[in-house]
Amino acid sequence: MADWPYNTRIWKRLRLAKLASDPGCYACELRGRFVPAVAVDHVKAIKAGGEPFPPLDGLMSLCERCHNEKTNAVDRPDRASTGRRFKGFDVNGNPIDPGDAWHGGGA
To answer: Which H or E run includes 26?
Structure first.
């Protein structure tokens, strides 16, 4: 977490505020499970034009597993990936990734 903006006081406060408001992992909750979040991730990556310090709804609270999966699938174009932000399905059998074609492909 050494790269800007993650080493700033502003980010550290924003991260704590997000974890306080959404203490569970976003993706795991979509799967019907509560897993405590330990990471805060940008909904729209800074490299893709996202704001470094967005409002709280521009951030996601994630567990370590989901954060690593999302980072490897979306934020690392140098690696072969599916481009799918989150793997798995909700309790109704629908894909949880908001970018899935089932949801209209937008997220």
So the answer is: helix 26-30
Chain centroid to CA 21:
15
In eight-state DSSP terms, residue 85 is S
Question: What is the rounded CA–CA span in Å between residue 27 and residue 64?
Answer: 11
Question: What does the alpha-carbon distance between residue 67 and residue 38 come to, in Å, rounded to a whole number?
Answer: 9
List the chain domain ranges.
1-77
Q: For residue range 23-76, list pLDDT tens digits in order.
A: 999 999 988 899 999 999 998 888 888 899 999 999 999 999 999 888 877 766
Question: What are the backbone dihedrals phi and psi of residue 87, each rounded to the nearest 5 degrees, phi first?
Answer: -90, 155
Which residues make Cβ contacts (< 8 Å) with residue 81, sequence separation at least 6?
Answer: 72, 73, 74
Helix (H), strand (E) at residue 101: none
